[in-house]
Amino acid sequence: MKEIFKIFQFLLLMYESLAVIDAAKGEMKLMSVKEGDPVILQTDVPQLTGDELIVWRFGDEGKLIAKHDIEAKRPPLYDEEERFRDRLQLDQTGSLTITNTRTTDSGVYKVKISSNKQTLYKRFTVTVSVPGLSGGAVAGIVVGVLLLAAAVAGVMYYLRPRITDLPNQTWTVMEGDDVPLNPETDIQTGDEIQWLFVYEDTLIAEIKGETREMTTHEGPDQIFKNRLKLDETTGSLTITEILTKHAGLYTLKIRRGRETLKKRFNVSVEERKITEMEGESVTLKPAREIKKDDVIRWLFGDREQQTLIAEIKGKTGEILTRDDVADERFRDILELDETTGSLTITNTRTAHTGVYKLEIRSSSGDSEQTFIVTVREKVEQKLLKGGESVTLKPDTEIQRDDQILWMFGDQDKLIAQIRGGTVEMYDDVNKRFRDRLKLDKKTGSLTITKIEAEHTGLYKLQIISSRGTLVKRFKVLIQQRDVVVAAGESVHLYTGLNEIQRDDEIQWRFGDKNSLIAEIKGGTGETHDVTDERFRDSLELNKKTGDLIIKNSRTKHTGRYKLKISSSEGNTYSTYSVFIRARTESLLKEKTADTGKRVNESVTVEMEKDPLLNGEDVDVVNEEEGTSSL
């Protein structure tokens, strides 16, 4: 009779569980086993793909008893409490074996198998009976109890717990900030509050009902150690000095009688990113206030291997900067503030681009911060008129044994160098620099004479010496003036590019309305017409350079043309004032002179009417440098 009562108890529990989880997914499978025998709960998955997360839960509360993250290549985790200790085993398909079963193992088991492709659910109702009862007896008892359970179904449905979902929230915060997660609902006396992290697997904080006892936990791998603050009045949870490893899904559960309120917070943590131009200073500031005895350590490098570059030693307060590490790239440029712990890098170079990590060790707990610093190359611009000469200067003293390299274009084509005291000149297959380059042996300066559109672009200077390698870049642009041609002639508007890169975008616009008339985007070129169709069959776009040609020009093509070049180095703008001069012709007209003789008279006939123009010079603006030239 005792065994019958146990089975009855279990089936009532099972019925209540089914009512509670009537929305649950997955088929239900009934299994019966005698006490002491093993039972295998088969997932019926023929083969796993290698990216699955397998989670097994037991009972009404969905207690986690086994978990295997196959993609992480970690061993399975099992419940270490007394009930299932050393009696659970997962195989390669995710099936669960329970050895040496007990009557207390009776209940509902649920498995969830998640992968990138799909999520599978399955449920098992396991009955563990005491040896001595026949299979027929057990079956009869089960049928009888099911009938009895059906009779009280209405009562059980009424008593089932209710789950109310509160509005979810999404947070995006910076690393090092304090993040308060607020329930945004009134907390009542007796409410039991639980905060869980990552798919509700890990309890990280709780407030117990009537006693109001508050507890915070360190979480997996102690990632929340000394970082959680729980508010008894509001139930809010604050994560102090948050790190990227704290990003994820946080779940709040408020249990109030038979009702459970649930709210989810999806928290994303971004690293602090700083971008500065070469030659400027960068200051990295801690997110928290520094105390007197704190140990401050600044490290630099990639994420896998970092080098200590500066530190403040706790009690002594001694400040150390290390110039002899990281290829001596930080020599004489590091400043560490003993009051704030801030690190300043003066006169930055591109070599200072990388990951900087701050570690703070104090009596109140340890913390860390990450900064992603990008130092962009400074490009010196030279804006010229067509036909002018330009001299590009290193602005540094050249030593006798220095090797000077001058390169041109996106491919760094070598055009001139000084090596071993000897000046050497080079030219490309197009002979664009023939008789146009002069290299000063003493200063290393490069002069380009009679600049034309094909000479515009990026020039790179590289100085290699025993002191290291210095790189400097120059961008040479031609300032276009008014373009004046006679009607019927072609108009050629240059971009100044030798070749468009795949990610570059070119836009040509016309008139006061900035109508788009031609563009190159994603390697594809296209021309457009305006509303009055003045450009029909007149536009030709060079897909290699982006140059625009207006064929068979007419006075109606007179106006302002604007060019925008978008590249990885920023946006460059140019404006052309185009004037199409009306064509005139001289005709001979017969006229009778006063003497009575016939003579020919030259008459000028205007073929097209000239429009009025302001005839302004071109504007060239580089968006990154913030300069404008006329």
TrEMBL record:
Record-annotated membrane-spanning stretches: 137-159
Segment forming the signal sequence: 1-19
InterPro entries for this protein: Ig-like_dom_sf, Ig-like_fold, Ig_sub, Ig_V-set
Stretches for region Disordered: 608-630
Biased composition (Acidic residues): 616-630
SMART domains: IG
SUPFAM superfamilies membership: Immunoglobulin
Limits of the Immunoglobulin domain: 28-129, 168-270, 271-376, 379-479, 480-581
Keywords recorded for this protein, A-Z: Membrane, Signal, Transmembrane, Transmembrane helix
Listed name of the protein: Immunoglobulin domain-containing protein
Organism: Cyprinus carpio (Common carp)
Lineage: Eukaryota, Metazoa, Chordata, Craniata, Vertebrata
